[in-house]
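User: Reviewer 2 asked us to show a designed sequence for the structure in our supplementary figure. I'm pasting the structure tokens here. Could you produce the per-position amino acids so we can include them in the response letter?
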């Protein structure tokens, strides 16, 4: 089922999951989309999102600020974003974790950390991190959309994935996230109707 769905809505969700920060904290998320657990963004076919080249000058500048300002989360978030966009997910995790320790209520950093866990083949940690995000805001649609994707592709929990996407639809049906969730649900139902999808293990998720 995972692969059947992936072929249908890779292009739909790819713009909504890799990150949530930019400007005030919301990146035009590119991402997690219909990919296998821990697969790099180019692994599922279709148009690949080119990885950003890691800007070492910026890295050094933000590292200097982080070192000089140990209680400032902002440079740590910037470092995490730089590494994330360059697909250096282990490094991104390090800095997102540091930033979150300083500001545990930053829902965008929390969700981006969860996505980074997913990309390093840690779906359970990703889902646990999304739970933390949803504890801060149960209606955070980007987190719910990501939660559905990780449930579907990281845990093969299609029932849980649809539940998360239905929540996105209920909260913001006309938003970009809502549209992506609707297409994901429609694609999943179409794939199932076509008979090319094995059933998902019920409850295969924490």
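Assistant: Here is a per-position design you can include in the supplement:
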């Amino acid at each position: 089922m995972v692969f059947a769905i992936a072929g249908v809505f890779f292009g739909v969700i790819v713009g909504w999951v890799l990150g949530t920060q930019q400007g005030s904290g919301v990146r035009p998320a590119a991402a997690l989309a219909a990919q296998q657990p821990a697969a790099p963004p180019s692994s599922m076919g279709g148009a690949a999102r080119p990885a950003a080249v890691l800007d070492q000058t910026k890295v050094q500048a933000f590292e200097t600020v982080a070192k000089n300002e140990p209680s400032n989360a902002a440079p740590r978030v910037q470092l995490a974003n730089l590494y994330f966009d360059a697909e250096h997910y282990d490094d991104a995790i390090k800095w997102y974790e540091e930033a979150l320790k300083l500001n545990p209520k930053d829902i965008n950093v929390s969700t981006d950390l969860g996505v980074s866990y997913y990309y390093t083949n840690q779906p359970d940690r990703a889902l646990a991190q999304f739970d933390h995000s949803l504890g801060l805001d149960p209606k955070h649609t980007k987190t719910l959309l990501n939660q559905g994707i990780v449930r579907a592709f990281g845990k093969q929990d299609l029932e849980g994935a649809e539940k998360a996407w239905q929540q996105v639809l209920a909260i913001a049906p006309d938003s970009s996230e809502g549209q992506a969730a609707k297409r994901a649900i429609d694609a999943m139902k179409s794939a199932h109707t076509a008979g090319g999808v094995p059933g998902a293990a019920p409850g295969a998720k924490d």
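For the response letter, you might also mention the following. Residues 103 and 122 are 23 Å apart (CA to CA). Residues 7-16, 18-48, 196-206 have pLDDT under 50 and may be disordered.
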